[in-house]
């Protein structure tokens, strides 16, 4: 005789494969559950060959099931137990079919399950009345066929356990052993799945009503383990059923039946009585034995993943050696990298959950065990692709950064192992390079400090194996990390190491093909490098100069496309140092032995700007020469400032030929020269004479005119005594007036009209400016003459209408009138001007 177990407190939920039920694992958030026995969803996901014959067989099976279910219900209503068992056995006989795929079989199974639930309710009611549950348990065993008999036995068995008329362990043992009578894989899996469902809430667990002297947690564990073992054997055996040509189809079906097997591990994980000792000594060894011995890659991968996801993190930590010891014994085709990555991810999250658990990791030497296991797995699976090995090391690095953030030697050791694995592999595939980027990004994200990454000797060695495009991506990641965390790289050695890391962005690599790169992306990359250069700083001028020299050495290898982006920020950073050194020298006498002197820095700047002539970008180089000249002016270094102006003039004469660029450059020269105060009379006259000469040689007359009257400001500087030459100002303005007349005459010849009077109005405003500033050479008569000239020209029949000129002239007249209205000396001065 046998004993049984079943009887669910809420039978409606027993079969609910299709409704989502949240199951909370111990030590694991409900949202991360891996196995949910209520989520197999076989009816929705199983593969079907869709044959018409199979549909007919399913239809016939459902019809036979429904017909017998009808007679079973009628027998139940009349309280006729024998007929009820007879028709229920005939109903369950439909499950004996071998013609249905798992998808179709599941549909049939679920209909039978619904009917068994009603039958179970009837058995519970009968046992509460006059019918003996023991007699009922024996009675169902008279069914003619073994499959219906066992389904009925499990159903009555659950009621038998609930009645407590026999020890639960005896009934459970009886049921799990009798189910061995079904060795057909598909039918056996569903039968044992049914057994697991009806018995799961009746296991003798701590705090359970079924626990007692005769029923212990060990009995529950033994039952689940035995059921798991048998189900796994059936599941593995499925691959050998049928012709070889349908092997792929069978593997798909097996893959979607896997939750029926994994459900047992979930049940084990829910048994509260399984403490660490029981798990370490019994549960884990028994499960791993079955996993290793089945020698099936699909089963091994899935079940290893189940073990990791189902049981508590602290159990994994304390049994790490046992769990990892099974990994090298798995089939070579098992995706062990995903399994180990999942394990390390869980342990990392466990470590991050509380600092109190970190000593446990040190105590069990978790890093050493994981590192050793990864090495053994890589060695055992010689054909493991590079990306798989790198993925393992990436997961180990993430684990290490969570558990041992202070152990940089561990981090460097992992990077070194990664280098050893990828060395000599040639060009890496895209998956591998993606994993390497993740590996290299992890320390940056953890420490938020590139300084830490620079201490890792193997960090740059790993970057060497990235292709050029990925190297650029990683370099951008490094720069963005520095910008985000506002990291200051404050020594020349660190700057050199950093620029060696990001060399993919600052110089042309051999295989680099910038022509294929989007121009906007290229500019964004180089702008990132420019921002990085601007962030480099050290309070010590000597060290800052070393940093500038280090950066210079690296960026000068950048090629013609990069130099226009990288040289200017270096120049401006060096100019900041010049002004800082100069401000210190005002208070402390300059040491002859100091290398960070303005003169020394200016020499470096001059040499650096010269490299732009090879690009060539003369307009940019000219701007930088003028910036340096102004900085030299602030340091009272006249020879240096003069040299920079000389270089700017040479560029203007020899390299800048475009008329628009000449106009822009000339305005820059005039504006900078006006602000210079360090020049003596001779040098200033030489530079000023050159500038006025350039102005008169511009291609277009209007450009000549405006440049010439702009030069008038070179002879009248308000902030400087001695630079107020009224005669030369007047000469410039008269010369501009002659050029404006010539421009108007040219317009008459070419267009038949005198053109705009805008140039005359602009010159009038210059006259007014110098008149107001006290230039005695600018008389009321000259201003009056200009006003009359503009008025006459505007009223001329040949004049071209220009609303802008009209508005400008009207505004000028209003200004003169407002100066008159001020009264006092200003009003008296302007009173003589008639408007």
Q: If you average the pLDDT, what whole number results?
A: 87
Q: What is the gyration radius calculated from CA atoms?
A: 45 Å
Oligomer: single chain
- What structural class do you assign from the helix and strand content? mainly alpha
Summarize the model shown.
By secondary structure, this protein is mainly alpha-helical. It has helices spanning 42-45, 52-77, 81-92, 102-128, 133-139, 146-163, 168-178, 185-199, 217-237, 247-270, 276-294, 297-310, 313-318, 320-326, 336-353, 358-363, 366-380, 386-403, 408-422, 430-447, 450-454, 459-463, 468-485, 492-501, 503-506, 519-535, 541-555, 563-585, 598-610, 618-634, 638-654, 659-675, 681-696, 701-711, 726-751, 758-772, 780-795, 803-821, 824-831. The protein is built from 39 helices and no strands.
Key structural traits:
mainly alpha, about 0% strand, about 850 residues, 39 helices, disordered N terminus
Written overview of the protein:
Helix 3 (81-92) crosses helix 6. It is built from 39 helices and no strands. The model is unreliable at 1-50 and 589-593 (pLDDT under 50). By secondary structure, the protein is mostly helical.
